[in-house]
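Quick one:
INPUT:
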């Protein structure tokens, strides 16, 4: 009987110690660092806010913009209307241009939209989706850069030309 009491006491002590360790500043730093290392396509969901909360509905956006978002979603990607168009609607103005952010890469966007899509830019590639006279800019979520990663990761190498 004494052996059981001793083992139960050790188990309860180890549980208390585990709780202390979990609540320690070192452990909290570790958790924060691990959260920072999450891929950006998962991390963005933490900061996503529903448009309904601010009185914005699908009727406020053009049919073409909504069809682009829906087409990306049907192909298994996340897509959001972002930027100035949302700001303008919050201010009660008509959006001038509509930007879309997605976790699809520019080449994947090109495959989905075909000739309707033009890829632009060198360092940060964007997709322009052309619908009649309107052009919609579709950008890929930017990757998070951890403090421990190689500092060469986000730099581009320029080709030296010979004259």
């Amino acid at each position: 009987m004494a052996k059981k009491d001793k083992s139960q006491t050790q188990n309860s002590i180890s549980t208390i110690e585990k709780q202390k360790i979990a609540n320690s500043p070192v452990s909290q730093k570790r958790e924060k660092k691990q959260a920072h290392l999450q891929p950006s396509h998962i991390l963005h969901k933490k900061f996503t806010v529903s448009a309904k909360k601010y009185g914005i509905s699908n009727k406020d956006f053009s049919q073409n913009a909504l069809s682009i978002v829906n087409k990306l979603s049907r192909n298994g990607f996340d897509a959001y209307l972002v930027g100035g168009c949302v700001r303008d609607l919050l201010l009660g103005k008509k959006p001038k241009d509509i930007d879309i952010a997605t976790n699809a890469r520019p080449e994947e966007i090109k495959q989905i939209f075909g000739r309707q899509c033009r890829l632009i830019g060198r360092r940060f590639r964007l997709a322009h989706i052309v619908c009649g006279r309107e052009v919609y800019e579709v950008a890929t979520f930017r990757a998070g850069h951890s403090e421990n990663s190689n500092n060469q990761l986000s730099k581009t190498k320029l080709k030296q030309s010979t004259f």
